[in-house]
Amino acid sequence: MTAPALPAPDATRLDALDRQALHRALIDRVEAAWRLCLEVHPALPRPAVWLDLRGKSAGQAHFGRGGLRFNPVLLDENRLAFLVEVVPHEMAHWLVHHLEDGERARPHGREWQTVMRRLFGLPPRTTHRFDTGRSSPAPYRYRCGCREHAFTARRHALARRGSRYRCRHCAQTLVYYAPPAFEKTV
Ligand SMILES: [Zn+2]
Ligand SMILES: [Zn+2]
Question: What is the predicted pLDDT for the residue at 182?
Answer without folding.
Answer: 43
